[in-house]
Amino acid sequence: MLGSIANSLGFGSGLNVSQLVSDLASASRAPKIGRIDALAQATQAKISAVAQARSNLDGFATALKDLLAQGTLSSQPSVSDANMLSASAIPGTPLGNYAGSIEIVQLASAQSVYSALVPAATGPIGLGGMTLTVGATSFAINIDATNNSLTGLADAINASGSTIRASIAADNGQVRLVLKGATGAAQAFTLTADAGADPALQRFAFGGSGGMQSAQAAADAQIKVDGIPYSRTSNSFSDVVPGMAISLKKAVPGQIVSLGSTRPTEGLRQAVTDFVGVFNQMKASLKDAQAAAGGTNALRVLDRQLSAFVNTALTSDPPVNKLTDIGISTGRDGTLSVNTAKLEAALSANPDAVEALFNPRRDATHTALTDPGISDALDAIRTGALAPDGLLGGLTKGLQKEAAEIAKSRERIEARESAYRVRLEKQYGSLDARIGAFKATQSYLEQQIKLWSNEQ
After folding, report:
1. Distance (Å, whole) CA 413 – CA 309
2. I need a labelling partner for 222 at 20 to 30 A (CA). Which of 48, 191, 216, 307 fits?
3. pTM of the full predicted structure?
4. pLDDT tens-digit readout, 310-355
5. Among the residues of 70-204, which ranges form H helices?
6. 169 forms bridges with which residues in the sheet?
7. 3-state secondary structure of 123
8. Residues 147, 155: contact at Cβ < 8 Å?
9. Taking Cα atoms as reference points, which of 371, 278, 379, 271 lies closest to residue 321?
């Protein structure tokens, strides 16, 4: 019925009732939708501005953390002969201006033994118990009907919980059992057949009258650092030279390898300059967000936190522990700049302290609380701001809720305006029908009057 009324608007009266209804409906809808769309656009602009500020803060903190993780802003070890050993820096432990020497007398080695060749890994080898002894610890190895083979013996050793690894090695169509332990003299091992075991198991025993042969003995690494002897169970260690993790490659008794450190002075200079540039970009995006969002309190608080960052103690080193100590200062407009002369003076007088701003020390007295460094301190601001209820997280959530409410309001307005248009169509459809009826009556009366006049 409604469709027929709408389709017939204007047919009865001759008036353009359809256009009249459209104009009235548009006149009612346009200003309301215009206002709600303007609100939606303004809110979306706020969301976009805050999102840009979030992205810049997050990107800055992440990029700084990634840069420091690469180790390019921390002193690195130098080695005179890379064929003898390699060395890497230990994060949180300063190298300073270390210079020393190391002599590699002996490499650490792992004991390895092997059996005589047998035809196949699956053939029976004998039943009974065996005892694997590593240092002062013993492990029971049992060979029964379920694992009576060389493969079964190897599997039992590997499942014993010891540090010994067993494998089957093929050689010219036959196989042998190979056992290997961990490096270090304390990891030496024996494998003996228990009393009452099948005598055939002696072929795969090592120690005493066992039939397995020694390929290599277990030994500790023997080194001299600055002439002082050290012994280590592994060829890789980080507890001899402070700040260095060392991996030995070759032992040449009497040959001296020089160790030193290289400070990334130019990298630190560039890092300070880059930090200031990116920091200023981040502050500019925050300023844009404040302008777009109407200077909300959350953005003002974050702006104050970032402004205070340059005066925040980042380490516990008295000479240099703040960005202001290396020549970074804040201008009247809130942007940062670098005093090159002050930066160079700090790099010259306190290079370890400048480096610690980017690579803070980590030990019993230098923790993430006492010495957060630039990265952790900025990360703390980032984490607090981006948390769901943080400064930017909470603001974003509020703006998104506002945008959702505006969208719902628009839907309600559209629904009301659609209902209003339907009422107009009904009202003017009815009016059009009545006018059409009146016109038909008028035409009929006019015809009747004309007939009456002609009859007289």
Report:
1. 48
2. 191
3. 0.72
4. 999 999 988 899 999 999 999 988 899 999 999 999 999 999 999 9
5. 150-158
6. 176
7. coil
8. yes
9. 371
DSSP strand pairing (221-225 vs 228-232): antiparallel
Distances (CA, A) of 193 to 2, 157, 208, 369: 101, 13, 10, 58
Burial of 262 per CB tally in 10 Å (0-12, 13-18, 19+): exposed
Paired tokens of 204 = 């795969």
Measure the CA–CA gap between 320 and 11, rounded to whole angstroms: 90
Token pair, residue 327, equals 């020549």
Please work out, in degrees rounded to the nearest 5, the angle formed at the alpha carbon of residue 379 by the alpha carbons of 370 and 335: 100
Asked if residue 128 lies in contact with residue 243, where contact means CB atoms within 8 angstroms, the answer is: no
Structural contact between residues 314 and 322, judged by C-beta atoms closer than 8 angstroms: yes
One-letter amino acid identity for 39? L
Distance CA(324)–CA(374), nearest Å, equals 12
Contact criterion met (CB below 8 Å) for 355 and 75: yes
Distances 306 to 271, 288, 379, 385, 393 between C-alpha atoms, Å: 18, 15, 12, 11, 16
* Amino acid, res. 189: F
**pLDDT for 393-406, tens place per residue?**
888 888 899 899 99
Beta bridge mates, 88: 245
- What's the longest Cα–Cα distance across the chain? 155
Contacts of 138 (CB under 8 A, 6+ apart): 131, 132
Enter the DSSP assignment of 200.
G
Measured CA to CA, the distance from residue 116 to residue 96 in angstroms comes to 55
